[in-house]
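Exercise: predict the fold of this chain.
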Amino acid sequence: MLRIKFVIIIILAAFVQVLKAQDTELAQISGVVISQDTAHMPIPFASVYNKNLRLGTYSNVDGFYTIIAHPGDTIMVTCLGYIDQKFTIPEAVANNSWVHHVQLRSRSYLLSETRVYPWGTRDQFRKAFVEMKLPDDDLVRYHKNLSPQQMKQLAAMLSHDGKSASMATLQKYANSYYYKGQIQTANIFNPLAWAQFFNDLNSGKYKMEK
C-alpha cells in the first residue's frame, strides 16, 4: 500500500512539473554565428540545437539563426571545423525575445597518413606486378642507340655536317692547285678513273632502284 502511494506521489509531482513547464512562455532566440578570429566572418549552416526541447535549426548563408526556447534552456551550437559552444537562456527575457551572437573558435584536425594505391584489391596488384614491364637499363639503351643499323639510318637521314663539307671544299681546292698553270686532263683518258668506274659498276652502284 505504501509503495502504491509513493508511485502516485511521483506521478503527481511529474505532472505538476509538466504543467509548470507548459505555463512558461516560449522566447524567440535570434543572433548571428560568426568566427572568433579578427575577420569575424559569418559561419553558414552551423547547427543550433535546443537540448531541453530537443529541436534545432541551422544558420543561413549569412550566419543568422533563430530558435524558440524556454528561459533556462541550453542551446548547443556546432559546426564542422569549429569548437562546439553552448549557452543558457537567461531566466528574465524581456518581451519574449532575446538576441545572442555566437562566436566560434576554429579547430585544427591532425589527420593520420593516408596512402592512395592505384589498385583496388591485392589480386589486381599481383597481376599488375607480374605483368609489369621493366624499363631498359643504360647499357641496353646504349646498344640500341649506337647499333650499326641505327647509325646507318641516321647517316642516311642527316645532311653533311661542317666537317665533311669543309673536307670536300679543301679537296676541291687541292685538285685546282694540282692543275694550276696547265690544262686539266679529261677523265675519259684517265686510267684510274676508268678503274674506279668499273669497280663501281661491279658493286652495283649504278643500278636502278625498284
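Check your answer against the key: The first strand starts at residue 27 and ends at 35.
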